[in-house]
Design a protein that fits this description.
- The chain folds into 2 domains: 2-91, Helicase, Ruva Protein, domain 3 (Orthogonal Bundle), CATH 1.10.8; 102-155, no CATH class.
- By secondary structure, it is mainly alpha-helical.
- It is built from 6 helices and no strands.
- The relative contact order is 0.06.
- The termini are far apart.
């Protein structure tokens, strides 16, 4: 009887401490649509994680909000516009090209071109310096070099 009570107590403690599963939409179509939409949205709490993959409380709230708006019949664009109005362009993984996002969109390409241009200029200047540093040998120096090479061959 003691073992039965012990097993029952352990079972009760594990079931009471187990975390409840997150609620899922009743409609699987809405759930699939919500997941597809939230893959393109950034979690506002987590760094570089999609809204669909985040386990943050805010992400859960936003997914619930998205489900509610889908149940109300709103389109994906209306839902995205709502989130952008509320949280700004940061919520989008692909923010629109605007005057204040030009550097975000084209900055990497500008830096790449600037780096390539700097490298070409540096290599051209270096080639000129190395070319100028080469002084041709005089006839006497050439004869000395040949004699040294011949002596090296004879010693081996």
């Amino acid at each position: 009887m003691r073992y039965f009570i012990l097993v029952l107590a352990i079972f009760a403690s594990t079931t009471l401490s187990a975390k409840e599963a997150a609620p899922v939409a009743q409609d699987p179509v809405i759930e699939q649509r919500m997941i597809a939409l939230s893959e393109d949205l950034r979690c506002l709490v987590c760094q570089n994680e999609s809204l669909a993959g985040s386990q943050a409380d805010l992400a859960n709230d936003l997914r619930r909000e998205i489900r509610e708006q889908m149940k109300q019949g709103k389109s994906d664009k209306e839902i995205i516009d709502f989130l952008v109005q509320r949280y700004g362009d940061f919520v989008l993984y692909r923010p629109p090209v605007k005057s204040y996002t030009l550097l975000l969109w084209f900055g990497p390409f500008i830096l790449l071109l600037a780096g390539a241009g700097t490298l070409v200029i540096y290599l051209n200047r270096r080639r000129k310096r190395v070319g100028d540093a080469e002084i041709p040998l005089s006839e006497e120096q050439k004869k000395q070099a040949e004699n040294l090479l011949k002596q090296g061959d004879n010693n081996s």
